[in-house]
Every structure is written in C-alpha cells, then in structure tokens.
Amino acid sequence: MTSRTCLSIILAAGEGTRMKSAMPKVLHKIAGLAMVAHVATTAEAAGAGDIALVVGHGGDEVKKAAEGFAPKAEVFEQKARLGTAHAVLAARHAIERGYDDLLVMFGDTPLIEAESLAAARAKLAEGAAVVVIGFRPPNPAGYGRLIEKDGRLVAIREDKDCSDDERKIGFCNAGLMAVSGSQALKLLDQVGNANAKGEFYLTDIVELADRAGLKVVATEAAFESVLGINNRAELAEAEAIWQKRRRRQAMLDGATLIAPETVYFSHDTEIGTDVLVEPNVWFGPGVKVAASATIHAFSHLEGTKVGPRAEVGPFARLRPGADLHEKAKVGNFCEVKKATIEKGAKVNHLTYIGDARVGAGANIGAGTITCNYDGYSKFFTDIGEGAFIGSNSSLVAPIAIGAGAYVASGSVITDEVPADSLAFGRARQKTLPGKGKQLRERFADAAAAKKKSAAE
Ligand code: UD1
Ligand code: MG
Known about the structure:
This protein is α/β, with parallel strands linked by helices. It has 2 domains: 6-226, Alpha-Beta Complex (Spore Coat Polysaccharide Biosynthesis Protein SpsA, Chain A), CATH 3.90.550.10; 247-423, UDP N-Acetylglucosamine Acyltransferase, domain 1. Strands 13, 14, 16, 17, 19, 20, 22, 23, 25, 27, 30 and 33 form a 12-stranded parallel beta sheet that branches.
C-alpha cells in the first residue's frame, strides 16, 4: 500500500429524474446499500483517507444518509449544475488542504472496483498528472472519446463535440479520474465552458495537462465496472452484476451454492467455510453464517446470526435479532424474531418464536407460538434448557418455562412452569363409549326428516 495521501471526490449532484423517484438517484440501493455508499466504500478500500461528497441543491437527504455510510465525509453543495469540473471545484476547500492523489468518482457508478482505482493511483505515483479510467462499451454513443496521438492521451472529446471520425473511436471515458493533487486546481481553474453543452467539463483537464507538458495516461476498466445508473432497469442490471460477483466470491471463499444464480446476498453478508446454501435463499442486511451451517431452500434471513453447523429451513424466516447457536435447528415454516435458539435446540415446524430464549437442547413442537404482543407492548418468553413444548401450544408472555419442563400439547400457558414439572394448559379429554354412533344416527334422522318435509 502506498503512503501517498488521497482524497476521493464523489460527484452526486445528478438530478436522476429518469429514476422517477422521490428519492435522490444515488440513494437507490444495490445489495441493500445506497449506490453512493458503495462508491465511498470502494474509495476507502483503494486508500482514500478522506472523502468529499458533492451534492446538488437540496442534497440534504444524501447528506443525512452519508452520516451513516461515511460519517467522516465532508459534504459540499454544488448550487448550480454547471458541469463535472465545476462540481469537483465545489470541493475546492478540501483539495486546497493538499493531497498527493485525488480520485474523482461518480455517485451513480457503483460497481467500480478498488483494484481499478489503485491501478490509477499507481500511475500517479509513477509521475502522471492525470489518469483517465477508460473502457470499451458495446455502444460508445453518448460517452466522451479518448483521443490519442503518438501514444499519448491528448484529449477527451464529449460525444456532442466529436467530429465524425472521432465518433468512431471505441475507447471511451468512464468518467472516473485520478488527478495529481498538486496539479488539480491549476488545471481545473483553466477549464472553460465553450462546448456544445455550455458546461465546465472535467474532461478538459486532459488537453490542458497535455499542452502543459504534463503526463496524461489512460487505464482500462471492464464495461461492467463502470456502468452508470440512470434508470431502474440499469439499477437492476447493476444489482445482477453485483450479485454475480458476490456469489462467486462466496464460493471461492468456501461456501457451496447449489444454484448460485438464485441466492441473493446483502452488501454485508458474512458467510463461513463449508456452508451449504440451497436454491432460492435471500440474505437481507446483517446476516452472519458460521462455518458448516446449512441454509435450506427458500429461506429469508435478515439481521441474523447462524451458528456453526446450525440448520435453517427450508422455508424459514429469520428476522432481526434471531441468534442461532451451534447446531440449532429452525425448520420449515418457522419464523424467529429477536430470539436466541441455544445450542442444539430445535424449532422444527410451523412455529413463531419472538422475543424469547430457547435453552440448549429444548424441543419446540409443531405449531408452537410465543404470544409476545398484546397490541401495545412486547413481552419475553424464557424456555429453559432441555424443555419440551408439546405441539400447538401457545406460550403467553411474559412467561418462563423451567429447564427440563414438559408442556402438554395444545396448551395455553399463562403461568410459570417450574423446572422439571409437567404442565397441562387445556381441558382434559372425556370419552363416552358408543355415544359417537348415537350422535350420528340422531343427525341422520334429523336431516332425513327435513328433506321429507321440503318435498311435501
Ligand atoms: C461524463 C463524462 C464523459 C463520460 C461519461 C461516462 C464529462 C464532461 N463527461 O458524461 O466523458 O464518458 O460521464 O458516464 O465529465 N455531475 C455533477 N454536477 C454537474 C454535472 C455532473 O455532480 O454539474 C455528476 C453527475 O451527477 C454524474 C456525473 O457527474 O454523477 C457525470 O455527469 P453526467 O452529466 O452524467 O455526465 P455525462 O454526460 O454522462
Ligand atoms: Mg452520465
């Protein structure tokens, strides 16, 4: 890692009207994290110690969100949207502090990889004043073209300003640049707006630097990495690319994904080695899966810890605060919220466990419900180690079931059950021999009489 100081300037003043959203474009999410947060995280991974976020007029929402994903970021407002160079200069005060490297990034280009940024910074370290990250899109229309002469990058021409010959160039500007901190303001202050759009183009610093005899180079990134997002269809494309990368990484890190294309990760999912993930699993934010756990098909997890060798699903829903210890099991059609399922405990079928502790080795029968809510407040259920809860029981919280206690099936439990005791919370069965047959005869006669009187 280089010891050079680096400021990342993230441009996020875009209007984003094509998202057709009340929310600023850069706050739309990929893998549960705002696009601009992906950009900030990647900048940090590439060694940017400081972040300047340039927001547009009324960028309060973006500013507020930044407190979460990049609390140290300085936020600057670009009051009028006069072009990318103008936007970078909104962060003048930060640039003036003096950095070795500046990384200019776009808040709507979330898939850029830290390696590409690090490669651009390496060129600065070798003496370049401006490094342009280029790419070769399938259709270059709309992008700035990289104009090379005698092996030098001499200019970037915006699509609207290109000659017919220049328009044929396939090597385009991704928009992201690394600029020498000592040259940046000199170059940016010379940028004018005599072009087709009447904007102050950041791209003009290429020509300005070349003319001043400074070194300008281009690096190349994959098309996928520099995809700019302008509408929700492109957002979904970016999500797909992100998921594909993440699934691959999970597998390379030692998890087995039987049908990787059906598994969805969150930006912060942690998954251990020898974890098996069956098809159609959704990981929402805040999930950690320890080694050798199994997530069976069609399970939905968020804010959850799954311990080593634990088993989840099929068709399980683990909500925030679910904490499954080693070898715990939560089976089909079970929901667990804010509850600890201790070592080896089993919650196997059709059950809701919320605001609870299920002690080690306890067995929760099918259809058990912790009645944790009275419409106003939530209450806790404590189930001791090795307890057995018979099927179809309702545990009305607040309630404690002691270790080793046994609750009979179909019970409604409202009072504490001490350790090792047996609790029946239901009416006793009464059986009357022969009475079933008599009852049927009575009903049959009544029905026949009714039919007969209707026919008369
Ligand atoms: C820009 C590049 C172009 C490149 C393309 C890649 C310039 C002049 N052109 O063009 O060479 O091929 O990206 O997608 O840089 N922004 C502001 N304030 C402004 C203007 C823009 O913050 O005043 C931000 C936008 O929110 C966006 C980014 O800068 O994140 C790029 O602006 P945009 O208008 O999309 O530039 P393009 O015309 O796409
Ligand atoms: Mg654009």
